[in-house]
Structures are given as C-alpha cells and as structure tokens.
Amino acid sequence: MTAQILDGRALAKTISQEIAEEVAQFQEKHGWVPGIAVVQIGEDPASSWYVRQIKKSFTKAGMRFELHTLPADADAEAFTMLLARLNHDPRTNGIIVQMPLPKHLPSHLVTDVLDPQKDVDGIHPLNAGKLFQQSGDTFAPATPLGGMEILHRYNIELKGKHAVMVGRSNIVGRPMALLMLHEHATVTICHSRTRDLAAMTKQADILVAAVGKPKIITAEMIRPGAVVIDFGVNVVDGKLVGDVDTEAAMEVAGYITPVPGGTGPMTNVMLMRNTLVAAKRQTGQA
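Above: the chain sequence. Below: its structure as tokens.
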C-alpha cells in the first residue's frame, strides 16, 4: 500500500484564489479591502519568518497587511495601548500577536485587551468557549482549521470514525479534537502521560499528530489504511520533518499529509479566511 498524499500546498493555492475573488467582491461593495494587523515584540528570527509568510499570503490575495513592531523591552502600557488602538480601527479586521511574548509581559495581556471579534486565530477565551459549546459565531485557530479543510476538500468523512489526537495544546490539539467531535467523530486525545500510545494510535481511522517531536509516530503505530494528519514542524539535520515518520508511514496509511507541503501551507489561508469572515461580520454581511 502506498498512501495518497494530501497536498496542502496545492490546496492552499486553490483556496487563496477563491479568497482573492471574494476580496475583490468585498472591495467593490465597500470601497476598501479587509486587512490584518500583526503585532510583533522584539526580533525573534522564527517569528519574523512567519510574519513574512503571512504578509506574502495576504498581499497575494489582495488583502491588507500591517506589521506593528515594538522593542523587546516594551512595557505593558505600550503593548496594551497598541492593541486597544487596533481594536478601535475600523479598517483593521483581524489582529494576531506573535507569541510567545517577552518574559516580562504576561500572556494574559493579549486576551485581556484583544477584541474577540478581531481574534482571527481563536485564542480569546470567548472564542475558545464558543468553540467548546459549538454555539454562535466564533473563530477557531487557523492551524487546526487548515487540517479540517484538508479533510473536507479530499472528501474524508469524519462521522462515526475513530479519530485519535496526539497532542493537547490550546492552539492545535484541543481545538482540532473539538472540531472533529463537532463532525461526529469519536475522539480520543493522547498526550505525554498516555500509557501505551501505540495501542491507542493503532485504533485510529484518522490519526492526528501535533506534539512537536520528530517522527514520534512510526509506521507500526498506524492502522492500515488510516488517514494521517501531521501538524509537526521539526528541524532535524537542517531539514524540516514532521511528527510522523512519513516515508515509512506511506507504506501503511491510506492518506497522509507530507511535511513540508501538508498542513503548513493551509494555516495562512485559514487566517486569511478568518480575517475575511471577520470583515464581513463587522460590516453586517455575516
């Protein structure tokens, strides 16, 4: 058996084109384009790289991108004043803050101040709570949304399937588990304290890995024919690898997302979609 590749890179290109068409329609109706504001404190290289990728994706789709930087030693007042100003800017439809913050700034400052209607990466407790309750308009984090979109676009049914989530972070594991549960999958969440992880993963019709440990999921841990979604991003010997041993898993799984080129490219397009949705809600369209 050789698994079918779930090509996130090609899918992201298609969705980006769809979003660009919607943005053009929005601009024709309102006279301006939806936009995102990215707040970065300090000059962390990884954060700077990610910000450049966001800018590239948004500008290519015809959306507005603004980067707001503060020095690494910025105090809480300067940070919260910036967030408050962006909250009140009618042309700023989405806001994300590059994490983690410097150690002298507590992370709760973000959720204390950030407008949940502009929280396009779903970190605000109000959005997280609505996602948990499956109630009202909410924003889910872009990364798990991208994984779900891959499943949808490849017509992979979740209803009645056993989905095993390996990882329980607030930005990937938990929201991904909830999103699958909302589509009537039976969900098991595994983590670092799970006993006999392989026994759990081998039960999965849909296996999702998001723990940040290179190749922690081996071929022997995968049920033959399973769908494998890999959110892992790890650098080993200068190369990007996932949480799944992809080459070996290809011989067992039915479908698999590669690293790179799987879930990664989908994150920014889901961030774009959330920002467009936010703009529509803020203008009374949705």
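The first strand starts at residue 4 and ends at 5.
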